[in-house]
Amino acid sequence: MPSRRFADGEVVMGRWPGSVLYYEVQVTSYDDVSHLYTVKYKDGTELALKESDIRSQSSFKHRKSQSSSSSPSRRSTSRSRSRSPGRPGKGRRRSSSQSREHRDDKKKIIQETSLDLLVLVLFKPSENNTRRYNGEPDSTERNDTSRVSSEQKLKPDLQIERVIEQYSLRPRKEEKKKEEVYSEKKVFETIKTIEKASSKTKDLEFGGRIGTFALIFFLPAAVFYLLLMCKQDDPSLMNFPPPLPSLESLWEARVFGVFLLWFFLQALFYLLPIGKVVEGLPLSNGRKLHYRINGFYAFVLTAAIIGTLLYFQFELHYLYDHFMQFAVSAAAFSMVLSIYLYIRSLKAPQEELAPGGNSGYFIYDFFTGHELNPRIGSFDLKYFCELRPGLMGWVVINLAMLLAEMKIHNQSTPSLSMILVNSFQLLYVVDALWNEEAVLTTMDITHDGFGFMLAFGDLVWVPFVYSLQAFYLVGHPTAISWPVAAAITILNCIGYYIFRSANSQKNNFRRNPGDPKLAYLKFIPTATGKGLLVTGWWGFVRHPNYLGDIIMALAWSLPCGFNHILPYFYVIYFICLLVHREARDEHHCKQKYGLAWERYCQRVPYRIFPYIY
């Protein structure tokens, strides 16, 4: 087994694939099986290189100094001899030798110019990587930036003309010019090929192609199974499978029309010119998208419309009576939307594709989302679906279940259990809409594409699975005492406090690390220019927001009692989901931050649950 020459974190010189140019890189990891080093360039690009493509800085600088010291002497000697008024015969021989040297030098200059084009396209200075917390680049970065910008101003044709003028070269033949044009085209074709290959998704999640194919069918089946079980008098797992309804009863055009009306009403509220417009995080090409923050205003308008309908005695429990049909309508709409999103993503530019949904496999990219931020004009489809129709629909469904409970059981007031569930989940939704700007820093927006996973999750899973406790209480009322209700309320408040304060610390630090209000927070600097918090909630566990989520999910289920496990499905699901997200975050952060992430894990050993996990 060959020994390893370079250690993790060592700064070496790595050859760029397909060229003879070496650049300063940092070794991040080594694969003992493939014997490949994973290195990171200054602009954040990560590539796998062979050991033969890596050299130590000392040896590289030594060779460079030798070549630079010897070349001028040879050139000066050559010039001095050519100018010497020697014998005619020898003068002619030296002249022919000199012309050959001129041709070789000219060819070398043209090759270097083509390689410079390749470097200038691939290594554009990134604003994120060259700026630090105070907003100013250091001296090295300023020199590199000015050097690259000045080189970009020099056109290849001007460089060739200067070389021709300096060495008194004769004009090329037409055939030679055609070869130059052809070689330049080959350079740009190579650039496109390298960019396309380097942006491909290599690490497949959710079981890869087979796993995502199965999830496309499993997720709708899971939703329908949970809703059918809640309808049973005894929703025990021993009563599997539940009686299946007829296919005709699962679809009604009127229900689908109501769903479409709801969706486009929220789209209309999204387009209203109210609320501030903010910038999202920088994309891979340095561009920042603009988002209008008016989710809370849309919620107020929606509440006003629902209140008006109730005032005119509109029976909102219509949702409960046709709950399964609404779920089928939402699932059908999400599938059509996912197909549209994938078709339009095939024409999207390379830089607009999602980092996690560009594998080249149809099923995988369809599920995870091929395009990162699909937009129709200024209408951002992913951002709209993330908070609007599904999240607000969850609140409306909960209210419909509360009214259905009162009507079915002839109650003048809703049960205490139903009030707790509605109140806790209403607080969660209002908090998300009030802090709408914070969603712009989540992986759903910055990393995940918009495909079947998010479309089905936003439009079906969130409103119809997250409202499972309220749906369960309609058919299975549970009485709880006031002391128990107070204890459950305290538990929910603890979870909410952890969730909100942890997210606020993270979002504020990402937006403005130099804010004096955050001076008490300590962090580990990283090679990307960002910092990893090691104090506050993020010094307690690595994902304190997930801890708050799980505590709140438990508080939402406790009002349903302990007669059946079905109301606690949400807790089990949430734990599994957050453990999966935590593993994905760990992998992503390890690749992104390298040694800094290892130091952070040593400082903060617990992931979600302190002293447990």
From TrEMBL:
Domain Tudor positions: 4-62
Domain of life: Eukaryota
Keywords, alphabetical: Cholesterol biosynthesis, Cholesterol metabolism, Cytoplasm, DNA-binding, Endoplasmic reticulum, Lipid biosynthesis, Lipid metabolism, Membrane, Nucleus, Oxidoreductase, Phosphoprotein, Receptor, Steroid biosynthesis, Steroid metabolism, Sterol biosynthesis, Sterol metabolism, Transmembrane, Transmembrane helix
GO CC aspect terms: endoplasmic reticulum membrane; nuclear inner membrane
Matching SUPFAM superfamilies: Tudor/PWWP/MBT
Bias type Basic residues, positions: 76-95
Pathway where this protein functions: Steroid biosynthesis; cholesterol biosynthesis
Transmembrane feature ranges: 206-228, 253-272, 293-312, 324-343, 454-474, 480-499, 520-541, 561-580
CDD domains to which the protein is assigned, alphabetical: Tudor_LBR
Reactions catalysed: 4,4-dimethyl-8,14-cholestadien-3beta-ol + NADPH + H(+) = 4,4-dimethyl-5alpha-cholest-8-en-3beta-ol + NADP(+); 4,4-dimethyl-5alpha-cholesta-8,24-dien-3beta-ol + NADP(+) = 4,4-dimethyl-5alpha-cholesta-8,14,24-trien-3beta-ol + NADPH + H(+); 5alpha-cholest-8,14-dien-3beta-ol + NADPH + H(+) = 5alpha-cholest-8-en-3beta-ol + NADP(+)
Stored InterPro entries: ERG24_DHCR-like, Lamin-B_rcpt_of_tudor, Sterol_reductase_CS, Tudor
An annotated Gene Ontology molecular function: DNA binding
Bias (Low complexity): 66-75
Protein topology in the membrane: Multi-pass membrane protein
Annotated EC: 1.3.1.70
Localization, UniProt: Cytoplasm; Endoplasmic reticulum membrane; Nucleus inner membrane
Gene Ontology biological-process annotations: cholesterol biosynthetic process
Location of the region described as Disordered in the Swiss-Prot/TrEMBL record: 53-108, 128-155
Record's compositionally biased regions (Basic and acidic residues): 99-108, 129-155
Enzyme class: oxidoreductase
Family in the record: Belongs to the ERG4/ERG24 family.
Protein name: Delta(14)-sterol reductase LBR
Native species: Pampusana beccarii
Gene name, Swiss-Prot/TrEMBL: Lbr
